[in-house]
């Protein structure tokens, strides 16, 4: 073997080893001999172990051990065979059970098929009968609702007649006057020329009949009305934001006090609760506007809220009020109440064979509902035509009435524009005292001169209302 370091062949006799490769090559033969000896030892050891095992088996103890192992093996085999037999029996029983279940299922399927042959027809028939019964019940419900609407219209008609609502034509003008309880229903634009007693009485009658009609119709007005009752001598009305959202509120004035003075007395208490708008006045309208502008504004807002309630009630019951955006049509309380009466009288009050709009006699719903007189249908006291439902909400949204505040502003402008402007101002007694004092030392002949001198000497001490007369420009 050639050395990889010194590049020479090994020769143990001639050349000794000079590197590790030469040393390895030197001991290589010894390693091979050692390996052969180890292999021979292992072979001999195996032969010895085999011979010793054979000698042990040939002995009596070894035979008994062999028999014992054989018995154990046979017992184990018997147990395995018994378990296998048991499994075969269980499998057989399971198969029998499966077979019996399949037979039972087959019988049930056949029975179900025989029973279900007419089941579809029976189900369809039962569904048709149920639908027809539901339609008939709904038709009867609608019929009862129409009968209730007719009853409501009859009650409203009788109430308005008993209250004395009537219309009289003015001579030659083509216009009409409306009376309720022998008191004229006031025209809002002409209130400045009417006495406060007539205004208060007329508004009280209108509020009373309106509450009575709404009670019969089961309708809740958008602006809540309060009629006179104990410790509440006059009718009032709340604005839209405060209506139906409060508890019992005391009357906004004390006996012997006007509403304006009561508001100063109550102080902070009136700020915590909503203040109702009065439907009455104790002074002429022009005088009230000068002395108490707050009460004047509240009163105008109250009468426009009352007119708004009447117009809203007419629109919700299908009664036309004319142009819903017109101030004259909305605030014509007498005409709207009379139109409501005429619409209520147009009802057929015979409760036999009532035709229900939108429903056929067979109970089927008709999509095209004829437009007719439907006064008394929609209310807050019934579920069929409920004003709080989606359909009722759409109905109330269909007629857009102007805001009561806008109506009050228009009414205020109308009253201010129609107020008469006198050419001469009438003086009170206090204004004459200055002139009487100045003329006390003069004769009657010099009266005109003295008056002229007083007017020239003391122009700054007299206000605009002092002096004899004052000419105003138109």
UniProtKB/TrEMBL annotation:
The keyword Coiled coil applies. One of its GO terms (cellular component) is lytic vacuole. GO terms for molecular function: SNARE binding. It holds the Pfam family ATG14. The keyword Coiled coil applies. GO terms for biological process: SNARE complex assembly. Residues 77-108 form a coiled coil. Transmembrane segments: none annotated. Signal peptide: none annotated. Keywords: Coiled coil. Belongs to the ATG14 family. This is Autophagy-related protein 14. The lineage of its organism: Eukaryota, Fungi, Dikarya, Ascomycota, Pezizomycotina.
